[in-house]
Amino acid sequence: MSQLSEFLSNNQNKNVEELKELLRIPSISSLSEHKEDVQKAASWILNKLKQIGMEHVEIIQTKGHPIIYADLIHQENAPTVLVYGHYDVQPVDPVNLWETPPFEPTIRDEKIFARGATDDKGQMFLHIKAVETLLELNGKLPVNIKFCIEGEEEIGSPNLPHFLTKSKEKLSCDVVVISDSDMWDKGIPAITYSLRGLCSLEVSLKTANSDLHSGMYGGGVQNANHLLVQLLSTLHDSNGKVNVEHFYDEVMVLTEFEKEQIKALGFDEEKLKKSLGLTDLVGGEKNHPYSERISSRPTLEINGLWGGFQGEGTKTVIPNEAHAKITCRLVNNQDPKKIQELVKKHLDEHAPKGCTVKVSVGDVGNPFLTPIDSPMIQKAAEAYKKVYEKSPVYKREGGSIPIVSDFSQILNVPVVLMGFGLPDENLHAPNEHFHLENFDKGILTICAFLELI
Amino acid sequence: MSQLSEFLSNNQNKNVEELKELLRIPSISSLSEHKEDVQKAASWILNKLKQIGMEHVEIIQTKGHPIIYADLIHQENAPTVLVYGHYDVQPVDPVNLWETPPFEPTIRDEKIFARGATDDKGQMFLHIKAVETLLELNGKLPVNIKFCIEGEEEIGSPNLPHFLTKSKEKLSCDVVVISDSDMWDKGIPAITYSLRGLCSLEVSLKTANSDLHSGMYGGGVQNANHLLVQLLSTLHDSNGKVNVEHFYDEVMVLTEFEKEQIKALGFDEEKLKKSLGLTDLVGGEKNHPYSERISSRPTLEINGLWGGFQGEGTKTVIPNEAHAKITCRLVNNQDPKKIQELVKKHLDEHAPKGCTVKVSVGDVGNPFLTPIDSPMIQKAAEAYKKVYEKSPVYKREGGSIPIVSDFSQILNVPVVLMGFGLPDENLHAPNEHFHLENFDKGILTICAFLELI
Predict the structure, then answer these.
(1) Is B280's CB within 8 Å of A310's CB?
(2) For A231-257, what is the mean pLDDT?
(3) Confidence band (pLDDT; 50, 70, 90) for A2?
């Protein structure tokens, strides 16, 4: 057993007790009655960072909940690592489904149960412990380190991008490390190296100045529902490809290595179909396998659709307006604003005769990708391998975490998503928990990463 | 001035006063607090029919409001005419928009203002007066006559079809005459000789067993909105024709005379476009003119459409269900139930892969047509010409009045819609009224018709 392992093993009890202190604070960012608890959690982090020897520790107030900054910069020729995490948590409803109260951390079966145990207090705390451990053992760190811990992740980080832009200098670094994601499975680490971006649009189609009676006008005047169906039916071709000109122009195609990685993960189509209650998985592009489609290919989804009468029975109305809500999931190097414009242009150009089509653009979020072969990803992989004795799986996630691409784009550095959660740890749900095995191994892996880079 | 005209002229005051009595009774069939008023109106009619000399006068109770029957059958070799009308009226809201109270009949500018003045107390009363007049002048009628006056027309005649079927024998006749429709314009009579029928359907399309997150599944699984759009887009071809096999098989095409009639009526496209706020009138079949499309051609309209998220902002959901409500307007000789089945079959057969499509069938109503050249229509035209000194316009209405086709189909006789209302008499609206000119001319026309057949 290495000196590090031994040290951690001796301190496990103390470390877990400290995490419990933090987990006891109900820092639910979305509920105003917990505003003080959120502040309390921020103060707890602040003190902890001071206590382990971090410098320039400060609380930055925002329009919402505060951000905590700290650094320790003494290694002139070593790289600088910025750790991002969050100390706020999701609400706990339905609280009656919790086996033990959400803010009374309890250990059962080598897992610690509490709201925030895995998302993200537990995972974020690993970095604090790694720094403390290295400082206690060596009196110094092998790198320079900065912490940026926020309290609004669960409400969409409304104030963080502004802080990043404003504090670009202060946050400058060589890599951002975030532990707020999953491993592949028990004992199998994973690095999420790509996230999809997003853009949204809304279409409103109008015909006459009011709804019309189908007895008087039926067959004579245009029906907004018909025209919307006609318009929306142009958005995909018969192979499931998005039929918008230049939509795929900037799409980065998968490397052979990535395709092999995806194949090697062994997707169980039958199991998925059964759990979703589907006989076929026929969304998206026919000429791409399912696992690629949900992670590495862009999409255009009609999330909402409505026009005319939705009540009980029959109403012989010719609706004069119909609407659709659309979002696209995007991949590198698609520019969400550009894609929004392309989709808008398509809808405008395909507007059927006899109506006006108004397209409004909504949210955007950049896709994110740190190439697998980038040095920082490779160091993280090495660190995982050292501790878990297994190479990590390289994952592309189909979802969007805009803040990750914000870090990557604003600070212009690679971001390493080094997750220690497990997929079944009930994040955002009752009985959230974190496996203690990954508490110790997480600290070890982070220490190894800091020593390797 | 004929003897008849002179008689009516002498009695106008008395006749209008009698109508006022009936108009004072607030017989609103849809409001339960007026149940007794509806009964009161029925009694009033009953007494009036007795008073003018009708026989076998009876009130037939139903599950709702009563039907009144009466007859006078003494002309062995003459035809029998069945008069249908209704004594119930629409509600009066918004009552503050009435210039004089709805149940205080008032004469202004040669019009009588009251709820029910034109729809249908006023028009129905013309037939009672015509019979009374002929009996007073001649001591007998030139025909046999039956009355069937109901009190539930404004709530969709829920009990009348059953009564018609049950009383087929009792109601047997050579022609049904109904005065519950419009003239073409002031001084220009009209005969509505065709109404469209109706059938309705609802489509529910389902994919997975729940809504899915587009981050995790987007591009992988089918989206119910996409599949519904795809399915609905098959219902019409690019020329606006309904794309359902055999849909048009039984459609009776317009005769050259009918086409000329429609053309001669001189439809003002620019005026209509302006009033509807449309730049084009592009609903329905491209190769038929507007006036034909809204009156003489069948349609398929998507009255309602919905799936997924309709709230504010963005929700990255892949909806697992989507719905549409459909009605078809039908023309002779389309069978509504058969068309329903054809549309259902089309939807089932075109169900996209990866979903289940459930089609449920709703209301049906038969189309109605009495050919222009049928003897009864021609006699009615002659009667109009005699009184108004103008040939009537032959109109096809695009709407549906199921009870008209019920009379036609159950009793298997021609139905003559001999209207004396004017299009701007505010039926169903505040300040409903009836032109007194058409009160006298209406009685004269009905007398002429009874003498001609």
Answers:
(1) no
(2) 97
(3) confident
Going by C-alpha positions, the residue among B135, B154, B151, B163 that lies closest to residue B43 is B151
For A297, the closest of B219, B225, B236 (CB atoms) is: B219
Same domain for A134 and A160: yes
Pairing mode of beta strands A175-178, A415-418: parallel
Confidence of residue B1 (pLDDT cuts 50, 70, 90): low
Residues of A in contact with B305 (CB under 8 A): 225, 228-229, 305-308, 319, 322
Alpha carbon of A326: minimum distance to chain B alpha carbons (Å): 8
Determine whether the interchain pair B294/A219 forms a contact, defined as Cβ–Cβ distance below 8 Å.
yes
Mutate to test the interface with A, among B225, B315, B334 (most CBs of A within 10 A): B225
Residues A145, A213, single domain; the answer is: no
Say whether both B166 and B205 belong to one domain.
no
Give me the mean pLDDT over the B215-233 stretch.
97
Q: Do A225 and B280 touch (CB under 8 A)?
A: no
| CATH code where residue B186 lies | 3.40.630.10
Q: How many residues does chain A have?
A: 453
Contact B22, B41 (CB under 8 A): yes
CB A353 to CB B277 under 8 A? no
Contact at CB, A318 and B309, closer than 8 angstroms: no
Write out chain B residues lying below 8 Å of A285, CB-based.
219
Name the strands in the sheet holding B111-113, side by side, starting at the edge strand that comes first in the sequence: B106-108, B111-113, B433-435
Q: Determine what percent of chain A is predicted with pLDDT higher than 90.
A: 93
Whole-model pTM: value is 0.88
Is residue A349 domain-shared with residue A245, that is, in the same domain?
Answer: yes
Q: What are the chain A neighbours of B314 within 8 Å (beta carbons)? A: 200, 303, 325, 327, 362-363
How much is the CA Rg of chain B, to the nearest whole Å? 25
What size, in residues, is chain B?
A: 453
The answer to whether the CB of A144 falls within 8 A of the CB of A79 is: yes
Pairing verdict, β B321-330 and B197-206? antiparallel
CATH number of the structural domain spanning residue A310: 3.30.70.360
Same domain, B142 and B50: yes
pLDDT digits (tens, 9 = 90+) for A3-13: 899 999 999 99
> How far A225 CA lies from chain B's nearest CA (Å)?
6
d(CA A132, CA A83): 14
- Show residues of chain A in contact with B293, CB under 8 Å: 219-220
Domain membership of residue B227 (yes or no) is yes
Nearest Cβ partner for B218 among A232, A278, A299: A299
**pLDDT value at residue A1:** 58
Quick check: is B258 in a domain? no
Contact (CB, 8 A) for A149 and A27:
no
Residue B266 falls inside a structural domain: no
Domain edge (last residue) among A365, A386, A405: A365
CA distance A187 to A191: 13
Query: Same domain, yes or no, for B15 and B139?
Result: yes
Q: How many domains does chain B have?
A: 2
Q: How many CA atoms lie within 13 A of B300 on its CB side?
A: 26
Provide the sign of the torsion angle of the four alpha carbons B77, B167, B135, B177, taken in this order.
negative
Q: What is the DSSP string of B349-387?
A: HTPPTTSEEEEEEEEEE--EE--TTSHHHHHHHHHHHHH
Which of B316, B341, B365 is where one domain is finished? B365
Which of chain A's residues have a Cβ under 8 Å away from the Cβ of B212? Answer: 276
Is there a single domain that holds both residue B305 and residue B334?
yes
- CB of A180 within 8 A of CB of A85? yes
* Contacting residues for B399 by C-beta, under 8 A, at least 6 apart: A213, A215, A216, B195, B196
Q: Are residue B187 and residue B46 in the same domain, yes or no?
A: yes
B67-72/B55-60 β-pairing? antiparallel
Q: Range of A145's domain?
A: 3-195+367-452
Q: Compare CB distances from B329 to A214, A315, A354 and report the shortest one's residue.
A: A214
In a domain, B290, yes or no: no
